[in-house]
Design a protein that fits this description.
Layout: H1 2-24, H2 29-59, H3 62-65, E1 79-82, E2 85-88, H4 105-114, H5 129-132, H6 137-148, E3 161-162, H7 169-179, H8 193-205, E4 229-230, E5 237-238, H9 254-263, H10 273-281, H11 288-300, H12 317-333, H13 335-338, H14 356-359, H15 364-372, H16 397-407, H17 420-428
Antiparallel strand pairs: 1-2, 2-3, 4-5
The chain binds heme C (3 copies).
One heme C (HEC) binds at residues 269-272, 333-334, 336-338, 349-350, 352, 355, 357-358, 366, 369-370, 374-376, 386-389, 391, 403, 407.
Length: 431
């Protein structure tokens, strides 16, 4: 369907190019034929570039941030709350007054590559140009060409509300001088073409590190690339993609990694929350080759030990009692879906036994799943995902802690206990 549309628009553009030439009616027939060919080629290549740009914009999930909930696509206005204030995304449709209709390829490149607006204002890294700087000029131009084909939307968005002292521009310039190094991805010649493609997508367009890394108090990512971290301003933990105890994929078959990335579920787990959005809006649209390249790169990442490792509990009488209550709650509320031994139902309900999303040291995501419920993303490969109901109104904090402590230590799982306090804190900061 999409391919047919692209083919149709190429045909249409080609026809336009030809008819312009006919109006021009040049005298020498041969020259005219040659010119026709060149124009037609130009039209085809610009259509190709635009469709490539559309694909790349999806791989970079530009729309995800630059579209407000229920708002016009790419017209901005989405609020991103962070400890530094609330950033409102700008309109990047080609509207001349409120969007980027006046921008040139060069202005756009400066935004993606250097993190600077058209007027030279340094941009805040809530726009992940710290990752997008790895994008090539060619890809940047293609994305720009695509954005310029969108219908312009005249929409003024409210300004970002940045807290003192972060609203003081020299501080941002200083931050950039310390933490930001512009630079296009440099292929590692010792590695395969496929590996480099995966690295380019993960490190650049996919901006995985924007979530999957620990940030310092100034919001900068340290050297622990893809080492996992709490997402700023939200109560989600993006697990380490380099640790076998969290979401490292070294031990996974390639097919299961691509399945997780492009459908949102795999035999071992299901994506949820912000990751489900990433899969739905971006990763499910990757071509087969690109998904495979990404999976190969992720699989090749060297193992690092998790930053925080909490030991499984020593089973005292009190702990035993806690587990027994947890087991009862599990039987009553969870077993129907997740199975009597935590095995889940393949493709429908994720297993809890052996699921690292359940056992990883920071329990926030598991607590969230139980309190708020959730859905894996709806994708072409899993169009009608089964959901999990919220238990916030059904279970008390101590009960949520009991059932989670139990599933973190049943069926061969081993992880620290979840405390009532941890559940309580999640309820407060649930967004
Ligand atoms: C995580 C959210 C996020 C994603 C993903 C994102 N942006 Fe943005 N973008 C922002 C925010 C926030 C700003 C405003 C930053 C500021 O005002 O300092 C911004 C600013 C921009 C600007 C500068 C606009 C101006 O008027 O100065 C451009 C251009 C832009 N983004 C393009 C893109 C493109 C292209 C992509 C995808 C490759 C993308 N963005 C993905 C959040 C995002
Ligand atoms: C907007 C933040 C965000 C971005 C961007 C992001 N992730 Fe995630 N990711 C998360 C969160 C939060 C989780 C934990 C929830 C879950 O397991 O689904 C997660 C989980 C995962 C998991 C484990 C999923 C599972 O269920 O086992 C993998 C693998 C992963 N991400 C890979 C990636 C890759 C590769 C990219 C870049 C292409 C990426 N993520 C970009 C937030 C993000
Ligand atoms: C109606 C079926 C259903 C019931 C009942 C149910 N779940 Fe779930 N559960 C799911 C589905 C579907 C998902 C995937 C949700 C997502 O991706 O956001 C899930 C996800 C989870 C996760 C996250 C797993 C991961 O891969 O990250 C945990 C933890 C969990 N459930 C625990 C429980 C507990 C504890 C109970 C009982 C209190 C329970 N569930 C009851 C269907 C159910």
């Amino acid at each position: 369907m999409k391919r047919a549309l692209i083919a149709a628009s190429i045909a249409c553009l080609t026809a336009m190019g030809l008819s312009f030439e006919l109006i021009g009616a040049p005298s020498a027939e041969k020259g005219a034929a040659a010119k026709k060919e060149v124009t037609a080629e130009k039209a085809v290549s610009s259509a190709q570039r635009q469709s490539r740009g559309a694909y790349l914009a999806q791989a970079g999930n530009c729309m995800g941030c630059h579209t407000a909930q229920g708002g016009r696509l790419y017209a901005g206005g989405r609020s991103l709350s962070t400890p530094f204030g609330t950033f409102v995304t700008p309109n990047i449709t080609p509207d001349k007054a409120t969007g980027i209709g006046h921008w040139t390829e060069q202005d756009f490149w400066k935004a993606l590559h250097e993190g600077k607006s058209r007027d030279g204002r340094p941009l805040y890294p809530s726009f992940p140009y710290t990752e997008y700087t790895k994008i090539t000029r060619e890809d940047s131009d293609a994305i720009f060409a695509h954005l310029q084909t969108l219908a312009p939307v005249a929409q003024h968005n409210p300004p970002s509300k940045i807290n003192f002292p972060y609203n003081f521009q020299p501080l941002l310039s200083l931050w950039r001088a310390i933490y930001f190094k512009p630079g296009v991805y440099q292929p590692d010649t010792a590695k395969s073409h496929e590996w480099n493609r995966g690295a380019y997508l993960v490190q650049g367009l996919g901006h995985c590190n924007a979530c999957h890394a620990q940030r310092n108090p100034l919001g900068a990512v340290g050297d622990d690339t893809l080492g996992g971290g709490q997402i700023m301003g939200s109560n989600w933990y993006a697990p380490s993609l380099t640790s076998s105890q969290e979401a490292g994929s070294a031990g996974w078959p390639i097919e299961e990694i691509t399945q997780l990335l492009t459908t949102g579920i795999s035999p071992q787990s299901a994506t949820s929350g912000p990751m489900a959005d990433v899969v739905r809006q971006s990763l499910q649209h990757l071509s087969k080759e690109d998904a495979l390249a990404m999976a190969n790169y992720l699989k090749s990442l060297p193992e690092t030990s998790p930053r925080v490792r909490a030991a499984a509990p020593v089973v005292t009488g009190q702990v035993k009692n806690w587990f027994q209550r947890g087991a009862k709650l599990y039987e009553k509320h969870c077993q129907d879906c997740h199975g009597d031994s935590g095995q889940g139902a393949p493709g429908i309900y994720p297993p809890l036994a052996g699921n690292r999303g359940v056992t990883m040291t920071p329990p926030v995501n598991a607590v969230r799943s139980v309190l708020n419920g959730g859905y894996p993303p709806s994708t072409a490969g899993n169009p009608r995902p089964y959901g999990m109901p919220p238990f916030a109104q059904v279970l008390r904090d101590d009960e949520v802690a009991q059932v989670l402590s139990y599933i973190r230590n049943a069926w061969g799982n081993h992880a620290s206990l979840v405390t009532t306090d941890q559940v309580d804190r999640s309820r407060e900061g649930s967004h």
